[in-house]
Description:
This protein is mainly alpha-helical. Helices cover 73% and strands 0% of the residues. Keywords: Signal.
Amino acid sequence: MMPPGTFCRLKKQHTMKSFKYVIVSLVLALGLAAPAMFAQDAGPKGKQGQRGDMNAALLKDITLTADQKTKVDAIRAEARKQTQALPKEERRSAKGRKIMQDANGKIREVLTPEQQKTFDANQKAMQERRGGGKNRDKGARPKSAK
Length: 146
């Protein structure tokens, strides 16, 4: 026969062991899940994200060869470098737009005539989405509809 209170002690030890296993399991689960949670939010943000979307929109439905992709990436890198060399307040000015227009012209030259048609259509669609782009060249803001 067991001395009095032994059963309670054994039950308490068993409960503590189970509790430790639960805590260790939770810590391991959180440790494994944390990198996955942070990796989901790795997309581009802010203005850079918009530029990435614009570049993707310009080349929508265009399949580039490896050579074309290399050239387009180099053109974009050079344009990015020139734009970042401008003071922050001038990046959206006529100077910044000129750099992007020149880069788009160079990209267009890399494309085949068939790809150029798609590129031109994509460019036109982008201009229409942002209000035609007519007021942008004059430096004025489009008037809001009342």
